[in-house]
Amino acid sequence: MPLFITDSNNVFGTSVQEAGLYNVKVIKAQVTTTKGRGLPMLTLDVEVIDGKYKGGQIRFQNLVWDDEDQEHLETSVKRFNTLVMAVGVQDGVAIDSLNQIAQGIQNKQLSVDVAWGDPNNKGQVYLEIRGYHPVNPDGSQPNGVKRPNAGQAIPVNNQPQSNPSPNQSNDPFTNSNETIDVKDSDLPF
After folding, report:
1. Which member of 32, 59, 96, 104 has the lowest number of beta carbons within 10 Å of its beta carbon?
2. Could you tell me if 18 and 5 are in contact, meaning their C-beta atoms sit under 8 angstroms apart?
């Protein structure tokens, strides 16, 4: 019996490099709690099932259930209902728990809108799922927006923006010819 069978689709290094709309399969759905308030949370990992990023994963997507008040509860119901409807659950199905959702969506296919998120506390930027839909019959559609450099502002609406030339700066005061003189007597200390 062989140790394993080689498979070019089963290698490390496949990753999604652009924002866009992707057809995916849920490869992991786990119920946990948020760190701060201890709210129930569903964590998802998905894998692209077609197109040039087939096999690439979008990981650690969190959906929080917050029933603190009526407004938060209605938002949570809508958030989770959007997810289950995208994987094909029919109207009228009673959902009893997040564990039921986690088990029910495992290996289900859907499409997701992904965009680059805000930098984390280490300055890293990752893709975030912003919307859930039924599988797109036209296939995955990357939009060309690649990961912003660490510390670089994320373009508005995730649209590409031109990079400044090497001698041009994002600092609006760099090209100013004005000088400001502040005397010691003007300082409050």
Report:
1. 96
2. no
